[in-house]
Amino acid sequence: MPIALEVVDAWFDGEKNLTCSMKWRVQRFETRTPRSIFECLVALSSGIVPNGLKFRVSCRPQYPNSFSFQLECNHPVNKSNLPIYRLELEPLRAHKNQPDAPGELSGLSIDRYVTHEHHFRDNVAPDRQMLNESSDKHARIVEDPPTNFDGAIAFLSVKLNIRNLTDIPRPRDQGVLL
Question: What percent of the chain has pLDDT over 90?
């Protein structure tokens, strides 16, 4: 069952706070390089954490200026996460919007290393008014984008209305595995 757009609007626009200890962890893979991950539940100003609302940051140590920041919630049907908003800071891959993207976003190609955002409002069909699994397939280039971790956190603190987002520490340098 999809989530009603007015519910997601209220979560996105409302004042929020992170509700965890501010710690990073390393996620290791057998076939890929490790990532630094920060994950934290997000509470509305009422103190309620709706539908597993979470803020996640990931990065790879060998790319110190490439980060992915995402506000997400639990998928209403399966055990995956449903993106609400994602900022890709100097991403390692290009992005191509589908032809069904709204207006000027239709078919937009975004080169790698170009900071862009995936916003749920750009990914909801006007006739559906529901958030579903394709809530991040279209992106737009961020005008005057942040250029580093601290700038992105300051940008997102305002954009996402998360009051204590600036408390997130920078990820530690883990070196590059040879």
Answer: 65
Q: How far apart are CA 146 and CA 143, in angstroms?
A: 9
Q: What is the DSSP letter of 14?
A: S
Q: Which whole-number Å values give the CA distances from 171 to 35, 54, 61, 151, 176, in the listed order?
A: 10, 18, 9, 14, 14
User: Residues with Cβ < 8 Å from 127, sequence gap 6 or more?
Assistant: none
Identify residue 51 by its one-letter amino acid code.
N
Please write down the long-range contacts of 93-100, taking CB distance under 8 Å and 24 or more positions apart. Answer: 95/139, 97/137, 97/138, 97/139, 98/137, 98/138
Residue 177, class by beta-carbon neighbours within 10 Å (0-12 exposed, 13-18 middle, 19+ buried)? exposed
Pairwise CA distance, residues 49 & 65, whole Å: 30
Q: What is the pLDDT of residue 174?
A: 46
- Rounded CA-CA distance 110/104 in Å is 13
Going by DSSP bridges, is the β-strand pair 25-27/35-44 parallel, antiparallel, or unpaired? antiparallel
**What are 100-104's contacts with CB under 8 Å, separation 24+?**
101/137, 101/138, 102/138
**Apex 144 CA angle, 141 and 150, nearest 5:** 105
Q: What is the pLDDT of residues 111-146, one digit of tens each?
A: 999 999 999 999 887 777 777 667 788 999 999 999
